[in-house]
Amino acid sequence: MNKGTLSLTHLIREPTRKMAAGPAPPLLLLLHGVGSNEGDLMGLAPWLDGRFFVVSARAPITLGYEAYGWFRFEYTPDGPVVSDPREAESSYHLILRFMDELVEAYGVDPDRTYLMGFSQGTIMGLSVALTLPEKVAGLVAMSGRFPDAIRPQIAPPEKLRGLPILLQHGTEDPVLPIQYGRAARETLDHLPVRLDYREYLMGHHVTQESLADTAAWLTARLDQ
Prior knowledge:
Layout: E1 10-13, E2 27-31, H1 38-42, E3 53-57, E4 61-64, E5 67-69, E6 73-76, E7 79-82, H2 85-106, E8 113-118, H3 120-131, E9 138-142, H4 157-160, E10 164-170, H5 178-189, E11 194-200, H6 208-223
């Protein structure tokens, strides 16, 4: 299903089973990587807990045919650099507005909003979760890097304490090599979040093993 009247074009998967308590379903918002689209991560939905109302959002910047991004970047000898920081900031605010719109449009629980990002989607997910943790119940961060630009805006420790984050990265990743995952882990280790870090023998993609861990981790959050 697609509902295009909100701030971001998106696909949805309605819950296939109900939570034991509470009328509003938990929300799982999927944020794809650069050059992809909303259909990519939605392909993982059949393996994710049926209690979630799953929404897969399309990033706002058109890069090509069925290819979108949250911001443009360029590769330099020091790694990827955001071409225009205003694009990343605009997408950040767009995601926040979209999250509020989803509560009104679909009746999801605003206190149980989970984010799941891949690559550039992970950068956006970390940006939202670490600056406004009160809006996020948990985050799955796949094959991304830490958004250094948000460091001055990271929420105070008392707001971050206990925020669940699953950070995954492939040891053979040719796009964002494993040092980016390990650097993100080191940064998060210095914050009072509840971090679960896992490495896999994989490239810049999702494997059956990493997806199974993601699904189990998300289910465990709902079962608490």
